[in-house]
Write a structure and sequence with these properties.
333 residues; mainly alpha; two-stranded antiparallel sheet; 69% helix; elongated
């Protein structure tokens, strides 16, 4: 079994797809980092111009915000959950002032998380599709599957070795995304920012932001949390891609089907959000980070646990069908 997995990993590496993916990542990360740094510098210049040439002082602005929050926290009429959220923001801003950290300055850790959050629903899944779409279909189109199945190895072991290799390469891909997004953006921003505090754990209940379960953690901890979700989503997409690769016998068709599903799913959740069935489509549940930030949820009633459950079911069903189809598929033609 180990030799089969090693063989599948070598096949993936020999196709040089990882090189293409790394090049794409370098281009996108570099462009986005430069754009964010350029935008930040322009905003500072615009602020100074509009304020009559007064030099931008983030500490005075942050202290003003801190005073407002402290007055609000002392108000005995505000709900306790709101006071709790205000107190956490006070802790966060106090840390920034005490450690001389500009809260709006771009840092490598901020960019890394933003890149993962924005790419989780489309860009990162597309990279996984590029990596995995021809895992099985290429074997059928080139007729090499016949040679592979002539070995005294059960079919399920052949497919399992491909899936294990895919999980390993997907894990490496997620790690590469995190490393490149951090190191390349650091070259532009010159700040890591991993020790900065961040508030997370917001919930949307009946359309209203609820802060009862919010916590204050470091950006390093938050980054690990975000990339854990990115890894989970990537494994789910890889599992679905494996199914398409087994069913479809050529790689371009497999990539086309998956790209249509990913892009089409984005339209479904915005234009048909009232349709109950849309919340069970895997694309609708890919953006897991919105549950941590309290971002707008396009479909009412969804939660982090719900989305993780739905994605897990999609992955399990895709794997089950993949093994059934692969075991029964005629490879003699």
């Amino acid at each position: 079994m180990i030799s089969l997995i090693q063989n599948e990993i070598m096949k993936i590496l020999l196709k040089k797809k990882m090189i293409l993916i790394i090049l794409l990542l370098l281009i996108f990360v570099s462009l986005l980092s430069y754009g964010q740094k350029y935008s930040y510098d322009k905003n500072i210049q615009r602020f100074e111009a509009e304020s009559g040439g007064i030099e931008y002082d983030w500490k005075s602005l942050t202290n003003q915000r801190l005073d407002e929050l402290e007055k609000r926290s002392q108000d005995e009429f505000i709900p306790e959950e709101v006071r709790s959220s205000v107190d956490r923001e006070i802790q966060q801003l106090t840390y920034f002032i005490e450690n001389d950290i500009n809260p709006i300055t771009p840092t490598a850790s901020k960019f890394n998380v933003q890149f993962a959050e924005q790419g989780m629903t489309l860009f990162i899944p597309l990279l996984v599709v590029i990596l995995a779409a021809d895992l099985v279909s290429n074997e059928f189109s080139k007729k090499t599957i016949k040679v592979l199945l002539t070995r005294a190895v059960p079919r399920w072991k052949v497919l399992l070795s491909k899936y294990v290799a895919l999980i390993m390469m997907t894990t490496i891909l997620v790690f590469i995304i995190g490393v490149l997004a951090t190191t390349v953006s650091y070259l532009f921003f010159q700040q890591w920012g991993f020790s900065e505090p961040i508030i997370t754990g917001f919930n949307l209940i009946k359309g209203e932001l609820n802060s009862d379960s919010t916590i204050l953690i470091s950006r390093f901890q938050y980054t690990l949390l975000i990339y854990s979700l990115v890894w989970f989503v990537s494994i789910v997409v890889a599992s679905i891609t494996l199914l398409i690769s087994v069913v479809v016998e050529n790689s371009p068709s497999a990539i086309g089907i998956l790209m249509a599903a990913l892009i089409g799913g984005q339209f479904l959740q915005f234009f048909l959000s009232d349709w109950k069935l849309v919340q069970y489509f895997f694309v609708t549940n890919l953006d897991l980070t919105r549950y941590l930030t309290g971002s707008y949820q396009p479909i009412e009633g969804m939660s982090l646990n719900f989305s993780i459950l739905i994605l897990s079911v999609w992955a399990a069903v895709s794997l089950g069908i993949s093994f059934i189809v692969f075991n029964r598929k005629d490879v003699l033609v």
